[in-house]
Amino acid sequence: MVKKIDVHFKNGDWKEQPSGGGTLALRHSYGTKEIVFDGQEMKGKGFCSYTLAYHPGTEATATYDGQMVFHGTVLGKEGSVVFREHGQILNGKLSAIWTVIPQAATGELLGMSGRGAYEMIAGKSGLPVKGKLEVEFGEVPMMQPSVWRSTSIQYMM
């Protein structure tokens, strides 16, 4: 059964560095942060890493992808699980989507699936952030291998 929960967290310090040695025509960077979750239904820490691509001619608009390794409890179940995150920063406002990777989990969180979202002011560490998460606990689904077509391989060689 899917359970909808409120997520409360605070971001730690944001660390960002340019990729490509700062020589790329577009601003492209890597970022990391830690998150402390302190809600009733989700408690623990998240360790996050991201890749960001800033849109030309802007300093406050970007798209990004990343992952968070969460250690703690969700609905009283303890363990670790990986969240895939993608989103955008538009005029200083960050909008994010989370997807739980059920195969990348340990303890009682093994088999947890779900998705969620949050919004916040980009670049503001330490402020409370609220989000939503829908989770379900069950069997760990098998990962499906990518299927390559023989014609694709021929064109690549």
Task: Give me a quick take on this structure.
Pfam families: DUF3224. This protein is mainly β.
Structural commentary:
Pfam families: DUF3224. InterPro entries: DUF3224, SO1590-like_sf. By secondary structure, the protein is mainly β. The chain has a single domain (3-156), classed as Beta Barrel (AOC barrel-like), CATH 2.40.350.10. Helices cover 4% and strands 63% of the residues. The chain contains one helix and nine strands, in the order E-E-E-E-E-E-E-E-E-H. The chain has one helix at 150-156, and strands spanning 3-11, 15-18, 28-38, 42-54, 62-74, 77-90, 93-107, 112-121, 128-137. It has an eight-stranded antiparallel barrel with strand order 1-3-4-5-6-7-8-9. The radius of gyration is 18 Å and the shape is globular. It starts with a strand and ends with a helix. 17% of the residues are buried. Residues 147-157 have low confidence and may be disordered.
Q: How many individual domains?
A: 1
Total helical segments: 1
Large-scale geometry: globular
User: If you average the pLDDT, what whole number results?
Assistant: 88
Kindly report how far apart the N and C termini lie: 47 Å
Task: Tell me the name of the CATH class.
Answer: Mainly Beta
Evaluate the radius of gyration.
18 Å
Task: Quickly give the CATH architecture.
Answer: Beta Barrel
Number of strands: 9
Element order: H for helix, E for strand? EEEEEEEEEH
The CATH homologous superfamily corresponds to SO1590-like
Major sheet attributes: 8 strands, antiparallel, barrel
Which strands sit side by side, in order, in the main sheet?
A: 1-3-4-5-6-7-8-9
Uncertain runs = 147-157
